[in-house]
Amino acid sequence: MKVLVFNTKRYDQHFFDETNKGFNHTLNYQECHLDAATASLAAGCECVCAFVNDELDATTLGILHKQGVKLVALRCAGYNNVDLKTAAELNIEIVRVPAYSPNAVAEHTLALILALNRKVHRAHNRVREGNFALEGLLGFDIYGLTVGVIGTGRIGLNVIRILRGFGCKVLAYDPFPNAQAEQLGARYVELDALFEQADIISLHCPLTPDTHHLIDDEAVAKMKNAVMLINTSRGKLVDTAAVIKGLKSGKIGYLGLDVYEEEDDLFFEDLSDKVIQDDVFARLMTFPNVIVTGHQAFFTRDALSNIAHTTLQNIQEFEQTGNCSNRVTL
Q1: Per-residue pLDDT at 99
Q2: Whole-number Å distance between alpha carbons of 330 and 247
Q3: Is 193 helix (H, G, I), strand (E, B) or coil?
Q4: Which residue ranges in the chain fall short of pLDDT 70?
Q5: Which pLDDT score is estimated for 329?
Q6: The Cα angle at residue 63 between residues 59 and 68, in degrees rounded to 5
Q7: pLDDT reported for residue 312
């Protein structure tokens, strides 16, 4: 199948080209994002491959339909950037990669927890400047703490498994409880109870209308003083203004973000020689107890290889059968 891959970085092309040796699709690459302004580039292609920060609204999908596109292959798990109703009306199939490496995201979650706790980012900068003083670097034992895990799908389960290995008590919340989480030693509670009891809270749920700004002023007010909050899921789960208030008051003692609700104009690009125009993000970066990584939790060799393989497998399955086991529907 002829495929136009949007939003391509060098690492994307490397893994897709290597994996495509076993599929023989015709892959063409574009560095630009997929949106209404670039969708016409797909003329003559039956399939476009998009990423988590591409814009697949009704206008974009309409243009793709006119170009003859029948399939949108998302090389990510989330699909909140896709107008599924319009896609269905235009008979454009949407497929995704539901699980590329739950271990990668779970391990990055723990990296943020450990780095925030032991202030690794600050210690690293000090030592590089010849400063070996320990004042201001005091951490705490994670062993025995209560950690709240919101969302117990594949990633959440792996986070629970790792935390239990650290000797943590784990509280879990999910509208659809997972027996495996309980087998790992987690205890399901209501969301308010999790907010009130957890020393560390980690988000691993999808972005839906119900979870948008799950962490808001009201939620922060219910949390323990100096709580640690980690988000490696979706940026819009967190109301950034509410979190900044929590940081200023000391209610939130540590914040680790791999995602940000307005990340589309920031993440995955080198902006080191530009002035960041997002004042809210700039304010976040002034706090010494905040670590932000640029949506890199998924970014391992294993994950990129799995993403490429599943994406190309999805395309092949659709080409051969007109259907796909990883299709996204309303």
Answers
A1: 83
A2: 38
A3: helix
A4: none
A5: 87
A6: 145
A7: 98
pLDDT tens-digit map of 21-40: 999 999 999 999 999 999 99
Contact 64, 92 (CB under 8 A): yes
Three-state SS for 262-321 is CHHHCCCCCCCCCCCCCHHHHHHCCCCCEEECCCCCCCCHHHHHHHHHHHHHHHHHHHHH
Q: Which residues make Cβ contacts (< 8 Å) with residue 11, sequence separation at least 6?
A: 304
Type of residue numbered 212: H
Q: Which residues are catalytic?
A: 234, 263, 295
Q: Which two tokens stand for residue 205?
A: 């749920």
Q: What percent of the chain has pLDDT over 90?
A: 95
Contact between 230 and 112 under an 8 Å Cβ cutoff? The reply is: yes
Q: Which residue type, as a one-letter code, is found at position 15?
A: F
d(CA 101, CA 260): 21
What residue has token string 């940081």? 247
Using the structure block, give the residue that is written with the tokens 């899921």. Answer: 233
- The domains found in the chain, sorted by start residue, are 2-100+300-328 (3.40.50.720), 102-292 (3.40.50.720)
Is residue 122 within 8 A of residue 288, CB to CB? The reply is yes
Whose tokens are 């399901």? That residue is 188
- The pair of structure tokens assigned to 183 is 């087998």
Q: Give pLDDT tens digits for 212-240.
A: 999 999 999 999 999 999 999 999 999 99
Q: Is 13 left (phi over 0), alpha (psi -120 to 50) or beta?
A: alpha
User: 123 phi and psi, to 5 degrees?
Assistant: -65, -40
Task: List Cβ neighbours of 271 (8 Å cut-off, separation of 6 or more).
Answer: none
Determine the pLDDT at residue 28: 97
| R_g (Cα) of the chain, nearest Å | 21
Q: Are 100 and 155 in contact (CB under 8 A)?
A: no
Mean pLDDT of the chain: 96
Burial (Cβ within 10 Å: 0-12, 13-18, ≥19) of residue 193: middle
What is the phi/psi pair of residue 84, to 5°?
Answer: -65, -35
